[in-house]
Specification:
Largest sheet: 3 strands, antiparallel
Structural class: alpha+beta
Oligomer: single chain
Order of helices and strands: HHHEEEEHEEHHHHHHEEH
CATH topology of the largest domain: CBS-domain
Strand content: 5-15%
Distance between the termini: 23 Å
């Protein structure tokens, strides 16, 4: 497991190059806050805030609900609830030794750090799943046979059509396409040309891993989000303002935690298989 991601903290996604309130730039800062959908700016003394009220800023105390510690873990529910407790359009101030050191916002869960580390750990998860299947003596041919059986056994028409389409991709009737598919499979390691969601289902059916330990839907959704680099917490309204969506963030974090549990389970399964083979 990538502990760098699993135990990531607010410090990993916070912003430390921050805008301070400046009376000389008040008009610009009013526009900035309205565009970003936020109300607060830190004072240059790093101990107080200025709150935007209509078109002017008013001095405001740094209240506890606006504060967050740099060491709080970003995927813990207690941390996530802080973004819900306050209007989730607002920023939180990263406070250490009673001084504002930076800011963090719901949008920072879209950070490059999280996206890169998620991609890395999902890649490793897929690699280790494929290696476990190989260690259990399964082959590409076993997987294709499993897909063939899916076509024959599915009662639901839509499901049957899906598996029929997949079988046609795996064993195309056109000789040239079939030759290309065979060449491609030989160029890659076993199971590398198949989809993660299908490999998980295959592993479930072959009793390689326990279906109850892995939330297939959440992991598949997470992988698709990462693969398409989806922005998970924001959209823009007709006035061009950013709107932030806490519910989407909550679902995203739930999927990430489901993945962490699945990966921990897979690693234990691999270790147990390795020890039993000695």
């Amino acid at each position: 497991m990538n502990s760098k991601l699993k135990y990531a903290t607010i410090a990993d996604i916070g912003i430390y190059d921050i805008f301070f309130y400046d009376i000389k730039k008040e008009a610009e800062l009013v526009t900035f806050c309205k565009q970003e959908g936020i109300s607060f700016l830190p004072s240059k003394n790093r101990k107080q805030l200025y709150k935007l009220v209509e078109d002017r800023f008013i001095l405001h105390e740094l209240s506890p609900e606006l504060c967050i510690k740099p060491y709080e873990r970003i995927f813990e529910q207690d941390t996530l609830k802080k973004f819900k407790a306050l209007n989730h359009n607002e920023i939180h101030f990263i406070v250490e030794d009673d001084l504002i050191k930076g800011v963090v916002h719901i949008i920072d869960y879209n950070s490059e750090f999280i996206q890169v580390e998620l991609y890395r750990v999902l890649f490793k998860f897929e690699v280790q799943l494929r290696e476990l299947l190989v260690r259990k003596n399964f082959t590409n041919e076993d997987f294709i046979e499993w897909v063939t059986n899916k076509v024959e056994s599915e009662k639901d028409n839509n499901s049957r059509k899906f598996w029929l389409s997949r079988l046609d991709q795996l064993l195309p009737k056109d000789p040239k396409k079939m030759k290309d598919v065979i060449i491609k499979r030989k160029e890659f390691k076993p199971f590398q040309t198949f989809y993660l969601s299908e490999l998980l289902r295959f592993a479930f059916d072959k009793k390689v891993i326990d279906r109850s330990k892995i939330d297939l839907d959440k992991i598949t959704s997470l992988r698709n989000q990462v693969a398409h680099s989806n922005n998970l917490t924001t959209y823009t309204n007709e006035e061009g303002q950013l709107i932030y969506n806490y519910d989407n963030l909550s679902i995203y974090v739930e999927r990430i935690n489901a993945f962490f549990r699945a990966y921990d389970y897979l690693l234990i399964k691999i270790d147990m298989d390795y020890m039993s083979s000695k």
